[in-house]
Amino acid sequence: MENLRTIKSRLKTIGSIIKVVNSMKMVATVKLAKVNNTHRQAKVCSSMLSDMLWKAMRECALGKLPEQSPWIKRCLLYQTYQCKPLIIVLSTNQGFCGSFNQCILNVASELIGRHDRAYVEVFGKIGRAAITQRKPTVMEGESHQEIRSVSEHARYLSELAVEYIINHGVDSVFVVSGKFENILVQRGQVSTLLPVECNFEPSEIVKIEGDVWEFLNDILRMYLYETCVGLVTEHLVAEYSARVMTLDASVRNANDMFDRLQLQCNRIRQDRITQELTEIVSSIECML
Could you give all domains of the chain from N- to C-terminal order, each with its CATH number? Predict the structure, then answer.
């Protein structure tokens, strides 16, 4: 049986761990509420830009676009094959997410396995280390640290996709990220960022004044940016949700362990008190 000093030391350590984990849970909860609001706004904006892009494409003849805009054609004309895609993987820089990182890595590994000539861009320390270990023979792109703000991250992703389309001859861009199902379930998903799958259903007439290429260039970049904002924020919502649930379970387990140790400590203390009282009574009886 452990002595009283050892149990008290363990109680102190577990108490400190509970305080730290509770603080981490509080931070994740605040971040979740903040990014969830941004995600709802991004979805509305992305839907509006998508509808505007579809209507503009319906009125534009892509074959008449000038020669300086071949990347726009590749972005808007959906191909039935992907011979050289760009795969962007969004992971995390830290753990405490349960199986969230593992779900994303499984989806990413399966997608990379289907495209031998793919470029791979990985964001996050955990994803970078795991994918390098699993698929060391893929065509290497860049590996990045976590970018601070959502807007900065989304802008970088959208510009990265356009850069690969223009400079590397990429014909499609996939994003592997987290998907929020509910507070208890988060999984990995694959989203097709480019080319844009447009819906040519009948819509109201849109008249484009001025340079058609400049208009499509601007609206396409705006659409890519807002789509990336939606993907990044949904990924963060799933990550923070998984972290909150994991930390909550950790706090409950730590509290249960603390209660058991406290009970054991009380029992040992009571046994010692009882033993001392018994020795005192026995000594008094022997003296009478």
Answer: 42-245 (3.40.1380.10)
Is the preceding peptide bond at 70 cis, omega within 30 degrees of 0? no
196-233 pLDDT, tens digit each: 765 555 455 566 666 667 777 788 888 889 889 989 99
The angle at the Cα of 77, spanning 76 to 78, to the nearest 5 degrees, equals 105
3-class DSSP assignment, residue 181? coil
Q: At CB < 8 A and 24+ separation, what contacts does 261-270 make?
A: 261/7, 261/10, 261/11, 261/14, 262/11, 264/2, 264/7, 265/4, 265/7, 265/8, 265/11, 268/1, 268/3, 268/4, 268/7, 269/4
Whole-prediction pTM value? 0.80
140 confidence band (pLDDT: 50, 70, 90): very low
